[in-house]
Amino acid sequence: MTNLNQPDASRPAIRSVLIALMLAIFLGALDQTIVAVSMPAISAQFKDVSLLAWVISGYMVAMTVAVPIYGKLGDLYGRRKLMLFGMGLFTLASLFCGIAQSMEQLVLARIIQGIGAGGMISVSQAIIGDIVPPRERGRYQGYFSSMYAVASVAGPVLGGYMTEYLSWRWVFLINLPMGVGAWLVANRTLVGLPVPHRKPVIDYLGTLLMILALTALLLGITEVGQGHSWRSGEVLALLLCAVLGLALFVGHERRAPEPLLPMHLFANRNAVLCWCTIFFTSFQAISLIVLMPLRFQSVTGAGADSAALHLLPLAMGLPMGAYYAGRRTSVTGRYKPMILTGAALTPLAILGMAFSSPHAVVLSSLFMLLSGIAAGMQFPTSLVGTQNSVAQRDIGVATSTTNLFRSLGGAVGVALMSALLLALLQDSSFAHLTGASLIGEGHSGNVLLDGLNAAPGDAQDALRGELLLTFRHLLMVSAAVSLLGLAAAIAMPNLLLRGREDRAL
Asked: Whole-model pTM?
């Protein structure tokens, strides 16, 4: 049996592990996007729209909350067990999703599926921290970022074809052969992972407080993203619960003998700045993935299929930036230059998108490609920087905290940008011309397109011009927010990654 944590670990062994981990990342990321296209078919079968949004949101909330818990448990019990558990739970829940007979059953199965996916994504990246020295991690994490990008493109395409020609149930059932295959490969290849020898002490109270606080926070953010006002009683109650829960969690973690999230990590300046960077990178990337197809669809009048293709340059740029940054980081041993370059490129690319019309396909695609490259340069390098700045015993929890900030950045980005879009439309002539009340009416994309389609034919050209200006202002705000990520990158110490430790890779 090859111990993957020893200097004699072979390149084929590392490659076998990498294949298993990339497949796990792909499956977890794919189910964030593949379901969206099937929502109308699911709604039509169950004749229930009240819980429809939670088919996606339930998965995302459960996955985000589960990530830090898996990270700590992996540090305590070893990552192989947690990886196999997450894969098995994800695959079993996919079966339950595929055979669900009501909307309630489907939402419950999606929540369980999200819990499994949180383990697959979090533990996969922590395993790389176990078996690959920091100097080499950039290119491996770049491969993982490529899986995210491929999943973002493949998800809507696969979901559309399977819903159209088979059934929406196959969107979930397709995970069964892939999930079983990934589990078997992982079971065979992860046997050499290190196993902790310290006696595990589980922080049950800290776990409960974190689940309650993060769930309340994400539910509140999701409600805002779905069109509810920040000032509504429901949203304010959720955010208040989140603040109270987080305060209690921090107070408890300071006194816990084996904390779920050690507070000393937040005294690590480099780790905190890496988390800030990845938060704002995810804020931009995920909100652009949501908003740019909507901008293209509303301004040009194109269909959803053309809007998805319009997103392709952004999705292509992510693996390009991740691959280049990973290779350069491995060669130079420094990750700050890549993070700083990506952070500086982001506001310039977003401003370019703001001032280029969606009708100018080549120019708009160029700026979208640059945005993808900028984000790709920051995702893997921020994770490598975090892992490099913590002790080996904290690799799992540091990695899961990085993924937590990544998920929170995406959730906050979509919620804030969607809420701002509705507010800008409400204050523009769009609301007056369409006669629509935009605040609190639901998802911003549905409100926008429904209002546009309801307008008289002669007024639609004027509305599209108004929408182009509104999206320009929205993207200018997004570019301004990205400057916070640039500030974090500038403040980041220019540390040298730990070396290869004479390991042949």
From this structure: 0.78
